Amino acid sequence: MNLIIGSHVSFTKESQLLGSVKETISYGANTFMFYTGAPQNTKRDNIDPLVTKEAHEVMKQNNIDIKNVVVHAPYIINLANSLKPASYNFSISFLKQEIKRCEQLGIQKIIIHPGNHVGVGVDKGIQNIIDALNLIIEKDQSVYICLETMSGKGSECGSSFNELKKIIDGVEYNDKLLICLDTCHMHDAGYDMSNFEDVIKEFDKVIGLDKLGCIHINDSKNVRGSKKDRHTNIGFGYIGFDNFIKIIYHPLLTRIPKILETPYITKEEDDKKTFPPYKWEIKMIKDKKFNKDLIDHIRKP
Ligand code: FE
Ligand code: FE
Ligand code: ZN
């Protein structure tokens, strides 16, 4: 079966998309997700068309379909609160630029966190998100915006399928909207990931499977419903490895890119150095076999 699996990778000023592709290949992955700059700020460099072209060639040679590659918008942009017009308007114009950058890179999906209402309430927050998206989305843009399911931490909007559905229904060009499920966030928001059949049935009923654009594969450090949003490595948290295999290999989700956003591993003797776990986690997923030693291998080689 053709599994579409990858992870978050870096995107640097120098190597840009080519660096991201090479990192992806080193993990044995066939898709990836990246931020077009630092996730916590909005400083962005120009896209180099020559590097982009070379990256596309390397992707072709390695059977990485650009349609499965996703960008994640920086998490400081917030479309749900308009009390500070300057930052609300900045978020809107920044997202517009991100969509342009995706178009330059040939990327078709950008993931955003719907936003934090910061006290104005979920309903007003959702209305702010709708208003923003109606200003952002252009009728003929080639990029889909994927709204991510959130854990419900703080004042996050979009921690239930119903809230996400409200956003979709309010947006004029909502054919450009898709959903990114995040397993850790769903578990933390209260969804029972050990009963994924029912979860995906509910998703189909409320939003529709045709609206699914991406899945973030993360285990959770906390119990179901905790609203904490703390990711951990696959099989090391409260969702558990066997549930991930059921989700990742679910027959209805074959065409959906699955992206790991699990934390880097620290070495026992030096906890300042961290190492990406993705090569090992992807191997466990391909083997369908949990192997705690794979992570230990990074910790104590
Ligand atoms: Fe996210
Ligand atoms: Fe996520
Ligand atoms: Zn998260």
Strand order of the largest sheet: 1-2-3-4-6-8-9-12
**Biggest sheet descriptor:** 8 strands, parallel, barrel
At the first level of CATH, what is the class? Alpha Beta
Q: State the oligomer.
A: single chain
Number of helices: 10
**Tell me, what's the shape?**
globular
**CATH H-level superfamily:** Divalent-metal-dependent TIM barrel enzymes
What are the segments in which pLDDT stays under 50 over at least 5 consecutive residues?
A: none
Distance between the termini: 32 Å
The total tally of domains equals 1
Ligand kinds:
fe (iii) ion, zinc ion
Secondary structure class reads alpha/beta
Which characteristics define this entry?
TIM Barrel; 16% strand; alpha/beta; globular; two-stranded antiparallel sheet; binds fe (iii) ion; binds zinc ion; 8-stranded parallel barrel; 301 residues
SSE topology sketch:
Elements lengths: L4 E4 L7 H11 L4 E4 L14 H13 L8 E3 L12 H21 L3 E4 L2 E2 L5 H15 L7 E5 L7 E2 L3 H10 L6 E6 H7 L6 H11 L5 E6 L1 E2 L10 E2 L8 H8 L9 E3 L4 E2 L7 E2 L2 H10 L4 H8 L2
Parallel strand pairs: 1-2, 1-12, 2-3, 3-4, 4-6, 6-8, 8-9, 9-12
Antiparallel strand pairs: 5-7, 10-11, 13-14
Helix pairs in contact: 1-2, 3-4, 4-5
The structure holds fe (iii) ion (2 copies) and zinc ion (ZN).
The site of one fe (iii) ion has 4 residues, from loops.
